Description:
By secondary structure, the chain is an alpha+beta fold. 21% of the residues lie in helices and 36% in strands. The protein folds into three domains: 3-62 and 197-227, Pseudouridine synthase, CATH 3.30.2350; 64-195, Pseudouridine synthase; 232-285, Archaeosine Trna-guanine Transglycosylase, Chain: A, domain 4 (Roll).
Amino acid sequence: xxxxxxxxxxxxxxxxxxxxxxxxxxxxxxxxxxxxxxxxxxxxxxxxxxxxxxxxxxxxxxxxxxxxxxxxxxxxxxxxxxxxxxxxxxxxxxxxxxxxxxxxxxxxxxxxxxxxxxxxxxxxxxxxxxxxxxxxxxxxxxxxxxxxxxxxxxxxxxxxxxxxxxxxxxxxxxxxxxxxxxxxxxxxxxxxxxxxxxxxxxxxxxxxxxxxxxxxxxxxxxxxxxxxxxxxxxxxxxxxxxxxxxxxxxxxxxxxxxxxxxxxxxxxxxxxxxxxxxxxxxxxxxxxx
Length: 289
């Protein structure tokens, strides 16, 4: 069994919990996920099975989209509402227009100071390990890109819609917006709606997977690994070129420079390749050895 299973992660599960559950359901050890979601978060979690785990690194680098609820008037030690409240302020005077006017300041390339409750390592120690011991340490700001940022409102409050680069902390974005407003803010809910080419429309629940295993239909839920690279053009190689590909060697090809999904004559997915100076080189192979 090889491919990608798009899970709609439930709240209160870690990403590792999901992988462990699927290892038990599918009876396969070689499984990994394509980008951690905090336990409180829900939504798109790509899970890679078998040889498809070779593609995890590419998934982690993709842009992602989220919807986040903004709780005004509080700041917490985790920057979300699962943490301990540090400050509380009146935010009744904050209007939709006040928040919306700030969004350009948090769009495009920005700098973020990662939260203490994160897996980033400083001096060989994960920040959350230090935070749990009551230690706060200086963290250098890191560049991230907010590609799109908009605001909505419903009966329960304010909602941010965010599309961002790898490494962006949405709870830090909420915290920083709260500081700019002067009242403080924390993230009260988070749902990931897209990872690269995969959206909520592609995602299935763990319950659905469990039922599919019982009925023998689980293979129908698993996507081929090349769907991860759907943004790149496809190219078909001849038998001689395929032999070079299988040997890990570059081969001449007439194609524009760039990344390609490379297939054999039978449309078997061989690799993600890169054309440079008239030669196709392997970026990552996916054929069965």
